[in-house]
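Researcher: I'd like a structural prediction for the single chain below. Treat it as a standalone chain; there are no partners to consider.
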Amino acid sequence: MKEEKNISNSLFRLMRNLRRRPKEDKHLSRSSFMVLRLLSKEDGRSSKELSQDLDIRASSLSEVLARMEEEGLVSRSKDPEDMRVSRVYLSDEGRQLLERNRLERLESEKSLEAWLSPEEREELIRICDKLSQKLEESRREEESL
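Model: Treating it as a single chain, here is the predicted structure.
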């Protein structure tokens, strides 16, 4: 049975194919990657701040951080000024992983861009930005109801 052509199916197919591309660091989840990125911008953030910024439950973040700590990507310690607060720090290994991931993403983007003309790239970016903006506006409207 042939799949119906529509925007959603095309986007899902594209995202599935992008996720399936070979990666050097396969074990890094989206949440872990986002934690690394946030810590690279501001190291020593509290678990509460990370949970809020990632928009995930504290218990879910705790699981992610435990896994990351086990892998040597981050370390956690109590804030010396407020022992109730747990601070999260990026390890050297976490920084190296983030840099490898950044370089890998650049390479991946270059190969994708090579398949499109400059005009096609601009049009794709414009369309994706427009759809994202409309989806974000729609979500905000639904949340305000």
